[in-house]
Amino acid sequence: MPSSLVQEKKKQGLLSVAGVKHTFQLLHQARALYRRARQLEQRAAKLKNIRKSLNKDAVAELAFNVHKKRRGNRIFKNYKNRASTTTLKQLKDSSVLFSCEMDALVHNFPSRKISKKHRNLLNFLMKRNFDVFEIEGERISHLRGSYNPKPPVGCQIFVKMIPGHVTEIKLMPLFERFGSIHQFRLLKNLTKYPRDCCAFITYGHPSEAALAIECLNKYEIKRNRCIQVYESFDNCRLFIGRIPVYKTRDEVRSKLSERISEIFDVIMYPASIEGHINRGYVLLEFPCHRLAENALKQLAAGVVFWNTTLVATWAYPVPKVTKETMEQVKNLFIQNLPRKMSEDDFRQFLINVLKDVTFLKTQKVDDYALVHFASRAAAEKAFDRLKWTFVKGHEIIISWAKPLNQINYV
């Protein structure tokens, strides 16, 4: 209702004071919505031009990570008028483009003004042809065009003890001396030292990562402040403690699946003395490190199952041995044997199962044993025959033994 018509109606006594106030409030809101819609339309036009220059793979990956945190989604819930809806639908389709704007770098901050520090950082990364976005405490800088093919295993390094005020402006030139960086992930406030942070850096070739580890480990980046550089290991296992000892593996998996998805395997060991109960913990294995990290975030807050608050942390990584070394192994590691089974009985069991395959010696301790063979061919034949074998009701677990002198704990 135009303001002149409102004044006329008021003179005629057709509108009350409360009605006039309400009408003016509606007019004010309508004008604000109209101005906001015009601003969003102008921004959408600008973002469409930027989107054309982005790599398609980069758009797909970034949109998945950032569209949930866009301010446009929050505005979309508040404003229901037709003009705003049309504009915001366009912004939702191109929400990834906010990552190319300066305010995308600091979208978690309440102020819309960009500090000089963040402006310089964004300019630095964009000049080096990096796409930048933030998600859940991580600032991820990804080199454009490097999404496919993915760098091979062994190209990622882990850097810790980074001073909190040190940014990519100082770190990137330092690590680029040893090769081209494909991805730089800086993690804030995720270490036990509040003023320190850590980073994951991905190179294009494993030799570049190895050279960076050799040269920059214990490098003094500031006075009396040394960073530590290691080979990054994609740990896909979680340790879950305080599991009731009478729960079976299937019961634990079914219960944890209510909160966590995509569990690859649940590893449960029997107790040392009483084999019919578990040890009070399980190991959860996931297909990749990212899924394991997301599961840890869900469980770290303290999930209550069976009237007990579970404890979740990273499991010790599986010892890393090169493929060439494992192809030369001639020993078998056997688990889940009966504890009361003597070593003589175990040897007789092997003779009955392996028949013409001879072994050199055996070593049995508690519920596991080590079997030595003279050749790799004999060990492979024994491996095939021992698969899916039961001993006194126990299904044995068989694997290749890892040489102690070749194990690299990372």
UniProtKB/TrEMBL annotation:
GO terms for molecular function: RNA binding. It comes from the Eukaryota. Signal peptide: none annotated. Residues 30-57 form a coiled coil. Keywords: Coiled coil, RNA-binding. Residues 155-234, 330-403 form the RRM domain. PROSITE patterns: RRM (PS50102). This is RRM domain-containing protein. It comes from Aquatica leii.
